[in-house]
Amino acid sequence: MRKNSLLKSIRGKITFFTAALTITLTVLAVTICFYAFHSYQKKMMIRSSEFNLQSIADNTSADLNNILSFVKWCCSSSDVVEYMDTIHGQGTLGQISSKNPRVAQMAFDTYDRIWEEYTLHNQSNYIRRLILSSDNPLAYMQMFYSSVPDRADAASLIASQDFFIPLYEASSFQWDGMVQNPFNRISDEFIIPVVRPIYSGESSQTTGWLYVEISPELITSRLKAYPLESDSLLYLTIGEKNYLCDKGTLTESPFEYQQVSDLKGSTISTSSKAMEAILPGLGKRTILTCSLGIPDFQLTEVLSVRRDRAQQTLYTCIIAGILFAALSFGVVLMYFLNRTIVKPVHQLRQNMDSISRGIFDKNPDIEWENELGEIGKGINDLSENVVNLMNTRIEQERQKKDLEYQILQSQINPHFLYNTLNSVKWMATIQGATGIADMMTVLARLLKNVSKRSESMITLKEELELAGDYFQIQQYRYGSSISIRYEIASEDLFGCMVHRFSLQPLIENALFHGLEPKRAPGTITVFASSEGSGETKVLVLSVTDDGIGMSQETIEKVMSGESLEGSDFFKHIGISNVNNRIKYDFGASYGITITSEPGVYTTMTIRIPYIHKKEGVEKQA
């Protein structure tokens, strides 16, 4: 045999396409895994840092809020307000006491009340100094709780500081960051100042102010234990000032960055925000900001790149293992496919696909001189056998249908004769000889239609005439207690083709099962109409009686042709036969349906295709 080149051979093609598919799927899977792992790792790193920052923020916020609650109390306490109203505009405390000895006692009471409230707060150890001063800086009260020495001009010193006026005039708490302690110029000691005005209890006029020093240890004591990577940065923002935290030490430092993207969905709390930003000298970094729950206070962490890279290295190793396993599997798969799959398999599959689509043509091209050729020959033999079997089955079904139709027709004839003769018996018994001639004339006409005509389809007009003859016979039995009326929607319906003797069983069922048990006068209504248009147009025939009605169980037995009891077989077999004839000729979507309300009515409806007879030729509407 002539050897083909590698790329033209089956082996080469299988190897090439299998390798390409394996590598493509592997690279795609590895890429998706890498980015999924990286995204998950970054989100987990952000949330881990967020949890740590939020823990510090929650504790710090609780302590700071307690201190602010103490400050608010001092500014609104009735004792403090009354005391400030008393000394307002009165000079120094010594001058005021000489004029009003009660002021000294009020000063002691106010001092004790502030001290009592101070000791009730768990965060009192973070309050370094408290000064309560009137509009005269010489009339002030001071409480300090640190080793920093006191000064006689303490109120004047505070009032001269740069932060005093902005904080004093602010509508609510305002922060100027950390400032050098005005009472300690020897060493670098910083405090967080709080200044609030005190209003008169009788008017909106200010009578003085309150100054409180908060120790930065309120925040730094917790930041000392914060787990921070060596290449991470932690900033504390107070007001408009930023402080770099280094092992609990805060150093004022500018914090500038340019936001690149907002990492929405990476944080758990709404008070936290994560973003990608570019920092001068550091490049692109991930920044996490967490609010302390108080305006102008927040913690910001520049997340570690080293930690991110370490996680990426781990994920890269895992993904490399997946890649190696996938490529190994691909190599094994290619080896297996190269040894087992050849071109004839594809041809056999195409031939089998043709068979599945109903094409059973014999294909001699798949009968090779090898094992696969034997399979191809078997497929061809199978196709031929299926065709023969289908032809045989179709012929058998046609013969079966003809036989069943003859059986159904033969069932209708004796059934009809039985009921007609039964009516003659009743007529002879009850009425004597009067009317027998008329009834026998109608009977003869009916028997002639049964015996002489062989066509299965007649016009609706002819079918209505047969039904009328049958009902006339039954009127001799029941007298004037029963009546029938016809409602035909349009004249063209009379030319529609219906099964012969399709209405008679329905009228018979209405008489025997609906009106006869009623033992009272009753009426049967035959209605004809059409639905739809074009090829989907349907002829609808219905027979309704105002008799005793039928239960659902009885309806099911009538439709199945099941015998209820005794001679009831002859009352219900006709409907089942007509229904089967319709379904045989037109399909399962057509036939008879029954609706009934016990004690009120029963309606039997026939639905068949609209076929009209014009000039002796049947045409589908």
TrEMBL record:
Main subcellular location of this protein, as a coarse class: membrane
UniProt-recorded name of the protein: Sensor histidine kinase
InterPro entries xref list: Bact_2-comp_sensor_kinase, HAMP_dom, HATPase_C_sf, HATPase_dom, Sig_transdc_His_kin_internal
Residue ranges that the Swiss-Prot or TrEMBL entry lists as coiled coil: 379-411
Transmembrane spans: 14-37, 314-337
All residue ranges annotated as the HAMP domain in the record: 339-391
Pfam family, one: His_kinase
Species of the source: Hungatella hominis
Keywords for this protein: Coiled coil, Kinase, Membrane, Phosphoprotein, Transferase, Transmembrane, Transmembrane helix
Signal peptide stretch: none
MF annotations from Gene Ontology: kinase activity
Entry's localization field: Membrane
